[in-house]
Amino acid sequence: MSTAVSRGTSPVPPARQPRLTVLSGPSGVGKSTVVAHMRKAHPEVWLSVSCTTRKPRPGEQEGVQYFFVDDEQFDKLIANGELLEWAEFAGNRYGTPRKAVLDHLEAGEPVLLEIDLQGARQVRETMPDAQLVFLAPPSWEELVRRLTGRGTESPEVIERRLAAAKVELAAESEFDTTLVNTSVEDVARELLALLR
Ligand code: ADP
Ligand code: 5GP
Question: Where does ATP bind (predicted)?
Fold first, then answer.
């Protein structure tokens, strides 16, 4: 005979906590492409818009890909504690506005950050429940092809980004999950499943 009596307690399992997901991976691996593909089908997935001191690429719009700021403005964001994390990457600074992330998590929505390895490490320290996802290229040669083929950076900047890529690839084991970007469609589907 069962003595377990449920009185006044809900049989409904507790709601899953909304999660913060960090997507990282070497420059040129396809992070933006995969996220854009996923959000085309699922515009409800909220992606944090970072601040950067990098100049906009052709077609990039203020407040869409980034908030473009100068060095002085970036210094102020740091000084005022407005960034959840920030890092210098290949000669420019990038940071995640703190308030928007916390607001969306508080509203119960999953949050996606697309940031570099240094930023991912900071998030792991400050928000240990975050899930860290690493996007890896099918091969080194393919990564070089994609980064060069994008045609958005000078040869010097490509060299800096490839040097950073070697460090990032060596840190893959720090992440909870690795997705290999062979097919944009497949990875976008896998990423969506991880977010939910
Ligand atoms: P990241 O945001 O990681 O720097 P991008 O999304 O800008 O990288 O992608 C870099 C280049 O690689 C772009 O030209 C993009 O079209 C291409 N690319 C992305 N994913 C794939 C893929 N699965 N197969 C082939 N090319 C890809
Ligand atoms: P890109 O200049 O190609 O847009 O971005 C360069 C690198 O900066 C990428 O690895 C990208 O993920 C990273 N990045 C973009 N926004 C942020 C951010 O807010 N914080 C950190 N730490 N990295 C970022």
Answer: 25-32
